[in-house]
Fold:
Amino acid sequence: MTRPATDTPQSRPNLRVSLFVTCLADLLRPSVAFASIKLLEQAGCEVSVPLQQTCCGQPAYNTGDYETSEPLARQLIEQFEDAEYVVVPSGSCAGMICHHYPRLLKGEWRDRALQLAAKTFELTTFLTDIAKLQRGEREPIALPSVTYHDSCAGLRELGIKAQPRQLLQELCATDVIELQQTEVCCGFGGTFCAKMPEISGKMVGDKLANAVATKAAVLTGGDLGCLLNIAGRAHRQGESIQVRHIAELLVGDLDSPAIGEAES
Amino acid sequence: MRQTSDTFLENASHALADADKVQRRDLMAVFTPLIRDAAMEGFGQFDALRQHVKQVRQHSLDHLGHYLTQFEEEALHNGNFVHYARDGNELNSRVLDICQQHSARHIAKGKSMVTEETGLNDFLERAGLSVTETDLGEYIIQQAGETPSHIVGPALHKSAAEIRELFLDKHDLGPRELAEITDLVGEARQVLRDKFLKAEVGIIGANALIAESGYSMLVTNEGNGDLCANLPKVLIICTTIDRVLPRAEDATAMLRLLVRSATGQAQTCYTSFYSGPRRELDTDGPLETHFVLLDNHRSDILASDYHEMLQCIRCGACLNHCPIYTGVGGHAFGWVYPGPMGSILTPLLTSLEQSNALPNACTSCGRCAEVCPADIPIPDLLRDLRHEETRRQLSAPRWRLGMKLHGWLARHPRLYHRLTGWAITALHRLGRKRGRFSRLPMAEGWTSQRDFPAPQGKTFMQQFALQQQQEMPSPVRDKPRKTRLRPEAGRTKAPRVKPSPPGAAKTASKAVPADKPARAVAAKAPAKSASPKSRTGKPPARKPRSRGPVKTRTEPHFGEPLEPQSGADERRSTTTGKPQEPDDVN
Structure:
């Protein structure tokens, strides 16, 4: 089923996408998942959401508890392997599926993990590289000034760098104000931030300082873990910079409270 | 040296409390990656050469016995003595024996992290010898009674003002200003000249041992290695067995990455090859030369799942690029090797019990692996060490239990969604006014440094199920989309979205008006009892995956391919439960 490169969302058959919501979006920020669905639909995709999904097993895996992580990996493979595409609004969860499942699993399960990995994409990568989302006739979404945090797993495991910037330009006609040391970790690191709080605090403090120095009104990114970390620190320090997931910006969802903000 | 890795968190806390040092390290964290990147950019062949260097290192380690034997034969032929030491004590004793055979009292020493590992200086000094470190950085920390904070720049943690104070205190040279850094360097040079001339024995390390010639290679920027090697009557080269490489060109290939990765230079000021003692017509050079080759657990590492760590060429790039290393500095790691490489080596060379915090001092950000010139999967090895901690119950019980509980719950989706639904609703109600929590029970680690953002409302799964229920298909409303797969209700059984043949997919999609975006639908997961066998034969994904631009590049030629050697494969089968390395991902 190869498509000529000139295919537009209007002229080609619908891509069928299963959304892996991720546990952080499910629990703390459902707007990320709803925005993701909206974007995928704008790109002409038919979106389904497997209702049994829970967690990809990344917390246990990164803590070194492979034995707990393995059944979760197998569970996710069973839930998603029949999909045509799997899309994940998180670089680290997509990296877990694409990069670490084949490392974690063995034998037949490893083969199935590799097959799933081949059709699993992080949201912004899918929208730019596969669904080729374009603004079309719509007006660009008006955004305040934006800076972008490159999350480590997305950046280094999946090569996500140009894609979100490209989408911000395409849909919102917005150029990212780059923050200094953008490729340095924000100090989240899953359980790291709770196991080594002081070091993590130093790292997120540095990240926030660089973000504030851009004078951007909004910091965005593709991974909720990092964004919760940075937003939490910004509120602790009384900084006014808003933190929102890239999916929310791309659908123009600026009215709902940003991460950590009170309901008005 | 005394190990304090077990108090890593306290050490780190202490280090973060010193604002001047933090600022100094912050500058280093910006500066050192910049000079490395500039050097690599000018070089332009990093990826290709690192694959080559990795292959050479792996090949050498796979045939370590063969190349060590060859090195030994050649080195003996050149007139050297070759000693093997199983552990640090053996190395120290052998070095002391050699010194005592020559009635040596003064030792000039430099460029050896291995002898830091074995604690040679203390050992020799306890036996009454006077040892002087001659590398400027090592000299400074020796005078200060400290240990290296970095494997390439051992005194990077010291400011010029501190060094000035130190020299004024330690050097009995009368009143003087030492206002400029050049004055400090000049004074160190003056003091060290006497030490070189007085020394009966010189001790240095090696960056590589070259099997085909029996030579060793050493890089320095100060030339102190050559003075240690050539002025005293006796030279002892202390290094480890894993430094051996087949050919001179392998050592120079490694060098091109080593120096750029370490200091951002294209080449160090001095690159020296040591062949052996002075020959008949030579006018200078040592009269007697020894190699002391240390194992100290390298054989164990080679036979373990961590064998890739032996590919390390000790450039220090992973330190410079690690935000945790640059955050807390090298001393916090509590032993000879700090930073990412140290967090792997320290548990392997000492014990995981003594250093179980170190593999956790990692966010898996991957920056170290990105710049590693030996292509070592550092975050993976650190995670494997955490796995070992979990298996051996060395990690904190509350974390182990927490992960098990979370994992169990996540394997029971209905219960998971019900419980998280309740918990999140409650948390939302508590936090909605402020939007965040500044304190939360069981999350002190998080809230000690930042607020915890409150949940937006109900969980996505709750909201989505509700949405699906409200959009229950009515015969009229659903007509245009009747080919869609819909759930009958939020939690009741819904047809599963199955991959259908391309033709069928087209038919289905044609039912959707082109101008109307498709709506999200719920898909029920396949039942767990589905036979896995039925899936093994299914065709691979229909679309090729594209992840960013594929760079094509002509592979530069770095020498003839290595012939497999006849020597037996040294690597034994592995035993621990590390996952298989995927060979077709990345």
Summary: The radius of gyration of chain A is 18 Å. Residues 1-7 of chain A have pLDDT under 50 and may be disordered. The beta strands of chain A are 15-19, 45-50, 85-88, 120-122, 146-149, 218-221, 242-245.
